[in-house]
Write a structure and sequence with these properties.
With about 375 residues, the protein is mainly alpha-helical. Helices cover about 50% and strands about 5% of the residues. It contains 14 helices and 5 strands. Helix 4 crosses helix 13 and helix 10 runs antiparallel to helix 13. Bound molecules: adenosine monophosphate. Adenosine monophosphate (AMP) binds next to helix 3.
């Protein structure tokens, strides 16, 4: 229970911390093109509260957040609940998923004292900036984006929110003057809309109240492309109809072992790492590497002499060892929803102060009168 005790102690310290962070203090000293004296390096990432999380979400998103935090980044993590409204949803499920995601973020090791954790909807500036940016975006450009076309094609009535989705994504980042967005390699294109809106804003209003955000891609450790256990040509996904295609963060050790045992491989018994010709076995090696902190060579060496069937047991044990502490911490946090809500409230207060700072400059540039005091 040390983790929970530490969280509570941290929460008691919040009032002082708000003030400190609200002044825009930055923990990180690394510099890149996107940052400057005016815009210190700040990393943001959003996670959608949809469905039960799997190991791909853990290695590709949650653990990455912890690594960024531990590297000293000024990190903001928001639960993208407004984005979840663009498709048909169940309000109670959205509430439950938001709390569950927050619990998992904390259970993974995100420290709410060092990183800002909050729900998007708790900071109204996201939606306000979205409107100002929507007035600069064109319908033709947004309707041309591949993700919109794909989703809209499947619907008879296309909600306007689906079209505006990338503008809200841009607002999510620009409203904090974030210099970097932690994304997977296949999501870097989403930042193009934000970059274009920054350019349009500069041309229209002759100033730039936010930096042009850049993608912060994961290292080449395979963490952003874990494959389905049933079809290694596909990414592991929450929406795959086959539950054995993914390992959930709530799965017990036995269920993990069962799903790994059923994972599709091939008829060659030796363990090698050859993603092109042996994608199923390569997926197991990738999981082993991520769970055990090994390189592909080290994982294959550890498998020396084992058949793929025996190797599956080794991978299942490594994965279970990595996930068991997370599962236990998540369980403790689920029993303390008030604590999780408190973390989110405190995070939102810090986020609001940061957003107000940027939004005031944007609103002034656009010509909006400051609100009466
Ligand atoms: P989702 O809610 O499924 O879009 O996933 C949220 C985040 O989890 C993504 O932005 C990725 O960073 C990560 N993620 C999702 N699926 C995978 C996967 N198969 N492998 C690695 N990371 C993933």
């Amino acid at each position: 229970m040390e983790f929970i005790r530490r969280s509570i102690v941290n929460l008691r310290r919040y009032p002082r911390r708000f003030h400190y962070c609200g002044l825009g203090h930055n923990y990180c000293t690394k510099k890149s093109e996107a940052e400057s004296e005016e815009w210190p390096r700040r990393v943001i990432t959003g996670l959608q509260p949809t469905g039960a999380l799997h190991v791909g979400n853990y290695f590709g998103a949650l653990r990455r957040c912890v690594q960024l935090q531990d590297a000293g980044e000024d990190l903001m993590i928001f639960i993208a609940d407004l984005h979840s409204l663009t498709t048909h949803h169940n309000p109670q499920a959205l509430r439950d998923n938001s709390l569950e995601l927050a619990a998992l973020v904390l259970a993974a090791g995100v420290d709410p004292e060092r990183s800002v954790v909050f729900t998007q909807s708790a900071v109204p500036r996201h939606a306000e900036l979205c409107w100002l940016l929507a007035c600069l975006a064109t319908q033709a450009r947004l309707a041309h984006l591949p993700q919109y076309k794909e989703k809209a094609a499947a619907l008879k009535e296309v909600p306007l929110g689906l079209l505006l989705y990338p503008v809200l994504q841009a607002a999510d980042v620009l409203v904090y003057g974030a210099t970097h967005v932690a994304v997977g390699a296949d999501q870097a294109q989403h930042l193009q809309v934000a970059a274009q809106l920054v350019r349009t804003f500069r041309h229209r209003y002759g100033c730039q109240p936010f930096p042009t955000p850049r993608a912060l891609l994961p290292g080449d450790d395979g963490s952003d492309r874990l494959r389905s256990l049933r079809d290694p040509s596909k990414k592991m996904s929450k929406s795959d109809p086959d539950p054995k295609s993914r390992i959930l963060l709530t799965d017990s050790d036995d269920v993990i072992a069962l799903k790994i045992r059923k994972a599709v491989t091939d008829f060659t018994p030796q363990v090698t790492y050859d993603p092109e010709r042996r994608p199923g076995v390569a997926s197991l090696v990738a999981l082993h590497c991520l769970a055990g902190g090994l390189s592909a060579e080290e994982a294959v060496e550890a498998a020396g002499g084992l058949t793929t069937a025996q190797y599956k047991r080794l991978v299942a044990r490594a994965l279970a060892a990595e996930l068991a502490p997370l599962r236990a911490r998540a369980e403790s946090l689920r029993a303390k929803p008030r604590l999780v809500r408190h973390v989110l409230r405190a995070g939102a207060a810090r986020a609001r102060r940061r957003a107000d700072h940027v939004y005031a400059r944007v609103a002034a540039a656009v010509g909006l009168l400051p609100p009466a005091r």
